[in-house]
Amino acid sequence: NSIASGVVEVLSASQAFAALKSDGSVVTWGDSGWGGDSSAVSNSLTNGVKKVFSTTRAFAALKVDGSVVVWGHSAFGGDSSAVSGQLSNGVVDVVSSSAAFAALKTNGEVVTWGSVSEGSDSSGVSNAISSGVIQLVANRGAFSALKTNGAVVTWGRNEYGGDSSATGYGLSNGVVRVVPAAFAFAALKDDGSVVTWGDATQGGDAGVMTSHLTSGVQDLFAVPSAFAALKSDGSVVAWGDAVKPTPPPPRPWFWTMTPSCVLRPPLVLSVPPERSRCD
After folding, report:
1. What is the DSSP string of 143-186?
2. Which of 41, 113, 131, 132 is most buried, with most CB under 10 Å away?
3. Which of 243, 151, 141, 212 is nearest to 182 (CA)?
4. End-to-end alpha-carbon separation of the chain, Å?
């Protein structure tokens, strides 16, 4: 059994799995149309893989030589032939929406492929992401790229944060980190303020909490449908879906997010240094 030993990580699409082994090989199983069949690229998955990523129906393997190997449903990122030359070397990170991938290269360039409706079409911002990108994040249908000058570039589904024009100049400079939820984004700036965009009901609009996010924020956390900001005075400000978090889809991107709780009203609370576990 090829997964009887040596497995260091297991990734999932909606109906398939991929196991990364300590020798750098990858083993896949599950629905062949959802990434379970990697026979077409099996020779490229026998060694040298250091990380595996997934959409709902495809996988991408980042190799130690900086190349990327993909398989699965072509419309969900399983076909990267249109950008294969750009993925042959120099890739340092890969992120995914539900049906598209984006790769960050050593020169700060971003390469995208997969479903056009879920963020593979970055033509509208191609010049802005051709260099200088230092952080790349994604939610279910949109991407955000943080640049060396502190600006953020977005693309993908408008309603999920692909359109950040409503933030005005808030993302033009001073951003130090971007955190994704399932349908929205939040950016932490160097002055301790927070900028949000995306689905207003899922954290894209901080609403009445906005006045508490103008300064003093030290860190940001997210669950699929809400955000929480830890402030320098030890308080926490939370916003988003106050009912319950949106159940995560069967994708590891959401499983690896920093655990946090959605706080009930009142939403500005003093909390002890150690965060308690959610029930």
Report:
1. EEEEETTS-EEEEE-GGGTT--GGGTTTTSS-EEEEEE-SSEEE
2. 113
3. 141
4. 37
